[in-house]
Design brief:
Length: about 120
């Protein structure tokens, strides 16, 4: 199993295809062939989970960091991540039944006392 299939298993890929916009069609033809969406999605997941920067993206994904970042931006604008999140929750049977109260983050900051307690 290669890194793309490990980061984007078949089940996730099927769900993603349902929520992702259709790739643009180049009416004039020519140009470079579009990088594989599954490999780009795997690269995005790699950046999100590894903590590396876009520029540190390893070449194993077959797409430049610029392509991966551009696709991430395009998919963000198309609200793909929100749609994907909703579909995953729906398929898990979480139809609005999550208890978000335990996920709250307190925004109050506490200053440390100089010199300790």
């Amino acid at each position: 199993m290669d890194i793309v299939e490990r980061l984007v298993p078949d089940g996730l890929w099927e769900i993603f295809q349902d929520v992702a916009p259709e790739p643009p069609v180049r009416v004039q033809g020519g140009g470079r062939r579009r990088c594989d969406d599954r490999a780009v999605l795997a690269a995005i997941i790699f950046v999100a989970t590894s903590g590396c920067t876009w520029r540190q993206l390893p070449p194993v994904f077959g797409a430049s960091w610029q392509t991966v970042h551009r696709r991430f931006t395009d998919w963000s604008t198309a609200r793909v991540w929100a749609k994907l999140h909703r579909v995953v929750l729906d398929r898990l049977g979480m139809n609005g039944e999550l208890d978000w109260s335990r996920c709250a983050i307190d925004s109050v900051s506490v200053r440390a006392v100089k010199g300790g307690l």
